[in-house]
Amino acid sequence: MKKSVAFLLSLILVITSLLGCGGSNDSSVTETSQAEASQAEASQAESEESAQTQADDETVTKLYEWPLAEDGTELTIFTKLLTSIEDFDTNKTTLWYEEQTGVHINWIQAPEAEFTTQLNLNITGGEWPDIYAANLSTTELMSMRNGGVIIPLNDLIDTYAYYAHQILEEHPEYRDYLTAPDGNMYSLWYNDTGKHMYYTRKMFVKQSWLDQLGIEAPTTTQEFEDMRIAFRDNDMNGNGDTTDEVPFMSSFKAWGGSPFCYFICPFQMTSGDGIYADEDGTWHLAAAEDGYKEALTWMNHLFEEGLIAEETFTQDKNQFKAIINASSEEEAIVGCFTAAYQGEVINNASYTQQADYVPVEPLEGPSGQKIAPSSGYGDFKARCAITSVCENPKIAIQWLDFWLSQDGRLYQEYGVEEGVDYKIVDKPSIYGSPTSYERLFELSQSTLQNIVWYNHTVPRHDWEEIRYGNALEDGSQETLLYEAALLYEDYYVPTGLKALFWIEDEVEAEEYDTLKTDIDDYIETQSTAFTTGERSLDEFDMFVQELKDIGMDRYLELASKFYGNSGVDYDGTIAG
Ligand SMILES: [Ca+2]
Fold this sequence. Notes:
Elements: H1 2-19, H2 31-54, E1 73-81, H3 92-101, E2 103-111, H4 115-125, E3 131-135, H5 138-146, H6 154-160, H7 162-170, H8 172-178, E4 188-192, E5 202-206, H9 207-213, H10 221-233, E6 246-248, H11 260-264, E7 275-277, E8 283-285, H12 290-304, H13 317-324, E9 334-339, E10 357-360, E11 372-374, E12 379-386, H14 393-401, H15 406-414, E13 422-425, E14 436-439, H16 464-467, H17 477-488, E15 492-494, H18 506-532, H19 540-550, H20 552-563
Parallel strand pairs: 1-2, 1-3, 6-9, 11-15
Antiparallel strand pairs: 3-12, 4-12, 5-9, 5-10, 7-8, 13-14
Helix pairs in contact: 1-4, 1-5, 1-18, 7-8, 12-18, 18-20
């Protein structure tokens, strides 16, 4: 979020100066740019009008038929070219979809590494495509709206987008996320509703060490401490050395690797962002609460006992990977670690396997608190906007809309051709279907392929049937992700955070971004200092005062403004 806000602000500056929007009196505004801006406004009005007149004879209750257009219809689409995709022009999905829809795509492919720069240049250059097919932050969308670059999609979605309309009816919260303060939606979306995304600060423990001790995975803070004392004091890896075992180690740089959320939750409600709303809608900074001090006191005790490795606070992900991926049992030294999932740090290339480490449920603290704070969504982003120069907004929205369907999702994940790109096999899926899908080509961020567009181009709705469509197999990554999630979902409590939030005021956006960065950084360095004993916990009240001096109260005031203050229902369950 830090990066996107910073980018957004620079984008606003560029657009403001070039297009003369947002009340700028900048004398550098050129006549051409002004003409472009007013042209864009006129074109936007036309697009809206045409959407409404056509609405009379078509409704979203009727599924559109292919082809979407007569031969010769073209759309220009700006998108991100991942290093793992060969070429959108010759991509198998491109050729297949062109044949189905009758729409030829002129791709503008911005290489992954230069994407932001090229997007910026494209927007300010004024030669806009019909569609920006990429993730867009809310700030980017608002500055593009201000510049007359993109059009509202509400009418188009509710008139022509069969799948988007239906999904938004089923998920009113998505409509809420996507709606800007002016009441309009400017994009479709991407979501990853994988169960494992709802809580990513998990703990994993080495099963063979539990077996040796004859114990189950811990369920309370006391059991967790006792287990690590046993790891510390015994020659768990059987190499004759009782001193080389590391009871707990992680890396802040790994996804979900910071120990603070998992270790703090038994004592203090918090969230991945460190803030949360209570039942009354009041926002809190977890680090300033009494329970946080209690948690740090415990962590400091664990550190002093040698139960938290100091490297956790200093090493990067690769340094941790070099330690945890052992080449034999005798060299395996890590007892447990925090991460979003085992595969974040274990690559299965050596002796150590992801399945060697099993998830540990949230710990019950001394007061009986046992929670996994969750925002209630997986990964949700605004994706794909239609521009004001698009002459066929109906075709554009329908071209995008198909990818939100189950088939669309299947084809993006497994390829368009059954029997060649994927096959259906007679094994139960993780989802619970009697059959499952097996991909017949390699798909990863590091493997070059030209079969699918992968994961950054078109809208995505995450159907669980597809998401968990591969075979249920012990030790497979998807199975591990799914199984770990099941251990946490009974303990979800809502944080009040939303998938997207909109800030109309650019100054407040910058203020919030700065405060968040400063406060998060300070909490991390000081929490580390308290844990390692570098700073005495006698100074905790002073630390809270320092947070206030940095601007904690203003930060929470802005959080309340952006996320709302309607409160959260702590009795409610979160849909998984
Ligand atoms: Ca040993």
